[in-house]
Amino acid sequence: MLLNTVLHTIRDDRMESEQELMRIGVSLPDNLLTRFDEILTKRGYSSRSEGIRDAIRSYIRYYEWASEVTGERLGVISLTYNHEQHGLIDALADIQHQHLDVIQSSMHFHADEKTCLELIALHGDAKSLKEVAEGLMALKGVEHLKLTTISTIK
Ligand code: NI
After folding, report:
1. pLDDT value, residue 68
2. If exposure means fewest CB atoms within 10 Å of the residue's CB, which of 40, 73, 107, 137 is most exposed?
3. pTM for this one?
C-alpha cells in the first residue's frame, strides 16, 4: 500500500511537469490563510503557490489512499468535538448505536472545559468503517476526525 502511494507520487510529478500552470482565484477565511502562511514560513516555502500545490497533492493522495482501502480491516477513529454543541452528544451516540456490528469499543477523554476526545475501535469491512467515519465527520461541532485502518491479512 505504501509502495503504491510512492509510485503514484512519482508518476503524478512527471505528468505535472509536462503541463502548463493554470491560474485560479480562491476565497479563504482570513484566519485559515494566516495559519497556512505560518506553516509555509516555518517549512521554508518560497511562495504561497508552491505551498498550495503541495497541499492539494497531499489532499489528493490522502483521498486516493482512502478509496483504495478495501476488505476486512481493523480501524481507529479519533475525533475531537465541542460537547457544548447542541444535540451533538446524542447524535454521536445514535451513529455509534447504529453500527454495533463494527464498533468494538470506545474511549472518551475530557480534554478541556469544552473539548472532548473520543477514540473508537472498529473491526469490519472497510466500507462500513468509512461510513461510520463519514457519518461522524458530517456532524456540526466535530472539529477533527481521523480514521486509521490496518489490514487483517498477514
Ligand atoms: Ni468529554
Report:
1. 79
2. 107
3. 0.63
